[in-house]
UniProtKB/TrEMBL annotation:
InterPro entries named in the record: DUF4440, NTF2-like_dom_sf
Official protein name in the record: Ketosteroid isomerase-like protein
UniProt keyword Transferase present: no
Highest rank taxon of the organism: Bacteria
DUF4440 domain ranges (all copies): 21-133
Organism listed in the record: Maricaulis maris
Amino acid sequence: MRKSAKSDIQLLGDKPAARAIAAARAGFNAALEARSLKAIADVLVEEVVLIPGDEAQLITGRDAQLEAWSSIFSQMPDVSYVRTPSRIEVCEDSQLAAETGRWKGAWSTDGFAIRYSGRYFAKWRCVEGQWKLEAETFVTMKRSGGRAA
């Protein structure tokens, strides 16, 4: 009998809901990789808030976030961002959830390879049976970069 892979994500509260959030996060990561603005939009509530991990400006609203992603994708064609959850906790009424984890970003510019990473916190809300991102806060813990090979 084959064992299924054990998730490294700590799931608390409503486990099926937490697994659905983990799947939504995986879908969001895939949307970033594919540069699919439609798929990114599908995961965000209209009034979503994103607090970047460094000196960048607060991004409020789905349209503003999509505009920011569009600009990032066009200015940095090799950019990649990945959020890796370590804990997802669903509240008692299964309408809100908290996700924490690590994030990584990488891109090149002017012959330099740039790498950022840190911690993040995400607030999820169940909207008509679908888990949507309502807010994300990022803290940049490490920055590195050097001449690209």
